[in-house]
Amino acid sequence: MIEFDQVSKHYRAGGRDIAALQPTSLCIDSGEVFGLVGHSGAGKSTLLRLINRLEAPSSGRILVDGEEVTALDAAALRRFRQRVGMIFQHFNLLASKTVADNVALPLRLGDDRPARDVRARVEELLARVGLGDQADKYPAQLSGGQKQRVGIARALATGPKVLLCDEATSALDPQTTTQVLALLDEINRELGLTIVLITHEMDVIRRVCDRVAVLEAGRIVEHGPVAEVFLHPQHPTTRRFVQEAEHIDEAEQRDDFAHVPGRILRLTFRGEATFTPLLGRIARETGVDYSILAGRIDRIRATPYGQLTLALVGGDLPAATAALEAAGVHLEVLR
Ligand SMILES: Nc1ncnc2c1ncn2[C@@H]1O[C@H](COP(=O)(O)OP(=O)(O)OP(=O)(O)O)[C@@H](O)[C@H]1O
Q1: In what order do the strands lie in the sheet with 67-68?
Q2: Which one of 61, 68, 215, 283 is most buried, by most CB atoms within 10 A?
Q3: Atom of ligand 1 nearest to the CA of 9
């Protein structure tokens, strides 16, 4: 669906050359929610803006739905952008226009639709994002979450196949973030839209994305299915992002665990194994006793997962670890 073939981007600023994106190859599949996570300046916005050619690459080719974005002339680019919607951190709504007029904007800029059709489409879009009763308000009269919903309705107006989200929830409080992410999830599932989102929060990735790429200094340092990357991060930058999301302080944990006897293991359960009454059974069968040092049960998009840090003492430890592994639990020895 979206293909980067050795794409790089350099900026020139103040006589300096800034390598925002090193030569990068990447494939984003049709219908998936793909997340890009990275610290400030990692190159996330650059990568996102290359997709709809708000930025032109310095080298390489970008294909969207088989079309070479890098080769489009002005008229073809205008048509192409009707198929790629975008939403922004600060919403980018026109303050002097009503909610309905903001949403109608891309429709009025495009083909000559009759006013009646535009009105009907705007009504449909506002109902879609849960703002059916806010059409005549102005952006200043709306909350942040409502403004982002207007942004989403506007981005969907021309029936795009791709939605680009530039830190779409970074300006929102946690509860509103949850609602906006749920709306993006719904749009992805119901309209089959391909979504590419950038964020500096691994938690946003965990909640809505199917796959993720971690960017650092203009390079993808790790990528893969979210469950893999989130539960078994390999690169130190990815590990830090995950620990931030999980509110884990490794040094603090090491101190806490220093006084605990036994073998310390981190267990990762995925899918239905998360709810299986495994520990009690294995403890009884092997005589191994356990204390729970840390734990969390949550979801990665729709898949439940659990992570438990246990101290195991006594009994037949090899038999206990073998039984856990046989039940599909991933084990990591912390000490
Ligand atoms: N128009 C520009 N002119 C010059 N340098 C730029 C321009 N846009 C971005 N950069 C530089 O390119 C690098 C990557 O920036 P980019 O905005 O893509 O990163 P980011 O990961 O999106 O960061 P943030 O989360 O802060 O938006 C940074 O060093 C930035 O200063």
Answers
A1: 16-28, 2-13, 59-64, 67-68
A2: 215
A3: 12
Give backbone dihedrals phi and psi of 25, rounded to 5 degrees, phi first.
-115, 140
Write the ipTM. 0.97
Atom 24, ligand 1: residue with shortest CA distance: 40
Question: Is 213 close to ligand 1, i.e. is its CB under 6 Å away?
Answer: no
**pLDDT tens for each residue of 92-109:** 999 999 999 999 999 888
- Give the separation between CA 264 and CA 252, rounded to whole angstroms: 15
- What does pTM read for this prediction? 0.91
| Residue nearest atom 18 of ligand 1, based on CA coordinates | 43
Tell me the CA–centroid distance for residue 39 and ligand 1, in Å: 11
**How far apart, in whole angstroms, are the C-alpha atoms of residue 301 and residue 277?**
23
pLDDT digits (tens, 9 = 90+) for 205-241: 999 999 999 999 999 999 999 999 999 999 999 999 9
Q: Which residue in the block uniquely carries the two structure tokens 């903001």?
A: 102
Contact 79, 159 (CB under 8 A): no
| Structural domains of the chain ordered from first start | 2-244 (3.40.50.300), 259-333 (3.30.70.260)
C-alpha torsion angle, residues 198, 200, 204, 205 (rounded to 10): 70
Residue 254 has pLDDT above 80, yes or no: no
**CB-ligand 1 contact for 44 (6 Å cutoff):** yes
